[in-house]
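Quarterly update from the structural biology core.
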Amino acid sequence: MTSGAILDVARDGMIVFLKAGGPLMLVALAVGLVVSLFQALTQIQEQTLIYVPKILATFGALMLFLPFMGDALAGYMGRIAVRIATGE
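Predicted structure, tokenized:
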């Protein structure tokens, strides 16, 4: 396996990682921002308030994006299997 092929596999893996994890991280970030803004506006300083909405939103996003994430990971595994089978 050449260094160019290794870089291609690594780059493809990073892109798949961002495709699979990105939507969940963005949902968690948006919910955290909204809850923090709510806390700042109402001056409620309860530190545990952020966890329940963030967990529920992340779980909901996981259920919504799971087929997309599975497809991205399966496609990556298929490309890796082809590389292994062809000896590239």
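The chain has a mean pLDDT of 91.
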